[in-house]
Design a protein that fits this description.
Shape: rod-shaped
Order of helices and strands: HHHHH
Largest sheet: none
Number of helices: 5
Strand content: under 5%
Length: 131
């Protein structure tokens, strides 16, 4: 008897969440569409932090966008158009952020190796004799 009450309460809570997010046509937002948009924008913003943060955020945005896009394509009439547009915009921002972050990371690595090569070419033994 208690198990039935618990399962009824759980299903009622799930229906309440769906009703809260549904619009007049019974549609709900695409899952993680807002998160993909936020992560995509942040990947562009943080691409200049040596490339690491933006690259991670961009990859996460792209993975979430791929999963959400598959869910949307399974039944597009269940989801709002605006949330799908947010998903597409977030995916584009994620692509741009990933590319910019990867370029920044390559730049940082190249500069690191150039400075390292320049430092090994200095006459350290002669500089130390002077002190």
């Amino acid at each position: 008897m208690e198990d039935n009450n618990l399962s009824n309460q759980a299903s009622n809570q799930g229906q309440n969440v769906n009703q809260q997010f549904s619009n007049q046509f019974g549609q709900v937002p695409v899952p993680n569409s807002a998160a993909v948009l936020v992560l995509g924008i942040l990947s562009i913003v943080f691409c200049f932090c040596y490339g690491f943060i933006g690259l991670v955020l961009g990859i996460i945005a792209l993975v979430l966008a791929g999963k959400a896009n598959a869910i949307y394509k399974s039944n597009p009439t269940n989801f709002t158009v605006s949330s799908f547009n947010n998903l597409k915009a977030g995916k584009i921002c994620g692509i741009i952020g990933t590319i910019l972050s990867a370029l920044m990371l390559v730049y940082v690595i190249v500069v690191f190796f150039i400075i390292g090569a320049a430092m090994t070419g200095l006459p350290w033994s002669q500089m130390m004799k002077g002190h």
